[in-house]
Amino acid sequence: METTVALLLLCLFMVIIDSSVSHNDKITMLPGQPQVGFQQFSGYVTVDERKQKALFYYFVEAEVDSASKPLVLWLNGGPGCSSLGVGALSENGPFRPSGEVLVRNEYSWNREANMLYLEAPIGVGFSYSNDTSAYVALGDKITARDNLVFLQQWFLKFPQFKHSDLFITGESYAGHYVPQLAELMIQFNKNHKFFNLKGIALGNPVLEFATDFNSRAEYFWSHGLISDSTYKMFTSSCNYSRYVSEYYRGSVSPVCSRVMNQVTRETSRFVDKYDVTLDVCISSVLSQSRVITPQQVAERIDVCVEDETVNYLNRRDVQEALHARLVGVKKWEVCSNVLDYKLLDLEIPTISIVGSLIKAGIPVLIYSGDQDSVIPLTGSRTLVHRLARQLGLNATIPYRVWFEGMQVGGWTQVYGNILSFATIRGASHEAPFSQPERSLVLFKAFLESRPLPQLV
């Protein structure tokens, strides 16, 4: 690990970028964009000169007083799906596409922070490598390293934010990306104080393969999606983690094939597994979880928000305004078609890394949209409670409801004033997309290290 940190330090000083470069990345105006008072930037950061690997970012300053607001990095999952198209343009960014124009998102997270969206790993969205071998057998370790180098180089472009409080957030497979990146940052800081990391927040994250995946059976059954007999098969004959393990090793057993066919028949393709209450006209931003729902990989859901996003980001005038370019692909996609990710990295638990971050004094929030059956709240809650017990953390806020206005926003519990769990009531796998106002309340409380609101 010391070798890794040394190499990263070398990368930091190999490329010297003048801070004036940030002005070249400034977005004058996005096509169809309403007038706003904050600045936007986008462009590329080189993370590997030899392979000419360049990561694309979109940065939105806070609406008011950006100099005093924290900096938040947002990462979407997949692995291989876009933080620009999903996070920024469908979830918590300042705009959403609507036909030929952009409309304001009233609950954008840049009301509270400077938001940095990164299209990672290499091969996602507008991010690219001129050496296509970089897309092959790419996994968690390389992704974490590239993301760390990206941040180092980005701060050279934007030195005014280097001392801002830094938070890393994300959802789904970002349950791998975020803790692994934070771990490298802490290791780097031991010798070279560079990152002012103040906390991480993970939405419906993959943290521990078996617990997260096998909570799906109980969720299906308790919400009426499968029968008693199928539930029994799904927990005894072939659970979901076994099925996924077999699937990605190319050898699904007859018993698992039988069980999954029965589960699929009963849950129906007309129910959105990422939001079990949503009607079938769904946003396929949900495809960011295609890897953790392998039987749906071949399905293509071309409706609603994704169509708007794909159409918008494939416009030549939009790409020019974003200082973006397509390299080695013909069109921008929500999820990468060129990336060959090491899918078995999915089985490597990251909950232990979360524990090491807490030991290092980094606050952690794990939150769940409670209508998501893909990474259900029950699995995440179990993992958080187990981790708290292992770390000897007592409940400092007992399990209780929290409020957004006069309505219940969800439920929460806090351990040792450093590890928090929260649900967002009525939210999907992509909580800021489905419950934007409640998600913003949660986000604000997280940044300010305050308990989620109670009814006054």
Automatic annotation (TrEMBL):
<keyword id="KW-0121">Carboxypeptidase</keyword>
<dbReference type="InterPro" id="IPR029058">
    <property type="entry name" value="AB_hydrolase_fold"/>
</dbReference>
<keyword id="KW-0732">Signal</keyword>
<comment type="similarity">
    <text>Belongs to the peptidase S10 family.</text>
</comment>
<comment type="function">
    <text>Probable carboxypeptidase.</text>
</comment>
<keyword id="KW-0964">Secreted</keyword>
<feature type="signal peptide">
    <location>
        <begin position="1"/>
        <end position="22"/>
    </location>
</feature>
<dbReference type="Pfam" id="PF00450">
    <property type="entry name" value="Peptidase_S10"/>
</dbReference>
<dbReference type="GO" id="GO:0006508">
    <property type="term" value="P:proteolysis"/>
</dbReference>
<keyword id="KW-0378">Hydrolase</keyword>
<dbReference type="InterPro" id="IPR033124">
    <property type="entry name" value="Ser_caboxypep_his_AS"/>
</dbReference>
<dbReference type="InterPro" id="IPR001563">
    <property type="entry name" value="Peptidase_S10"/>
</dbReference>
<keyword id="KW-0645">Protease</keyword>
<dbReference type="InterPro" id="IPR018202">
    <property type="entry name" value="Ser_caboxypep_ser_AS"/>
</dbReference>
<dbReference type="GO" id="GO:0005576">
    <property type="term" value="C:extracellular region"/>
</dbReference>
<keyword id="KW-1015">Disulfide bond</keyword>
<keyword id="KW-0325">Glycoprotein</keyword>
<dbReference type="GO" id="GO:0005773">
    <property type="term" value="C:vacuole"/>
</dbReference>
<protein>
    <recommendedName>
        <fullName>Carboxypeptidase</fullName>
        <ecNumber>3.4.16.-</ecNumber>
    </recommendedName>
</protein>
<dbReference type="GO" id="GO:0004185">
    <property type="term" value="F:serine-type carboxypeptidase activity"/>
</dbReference>
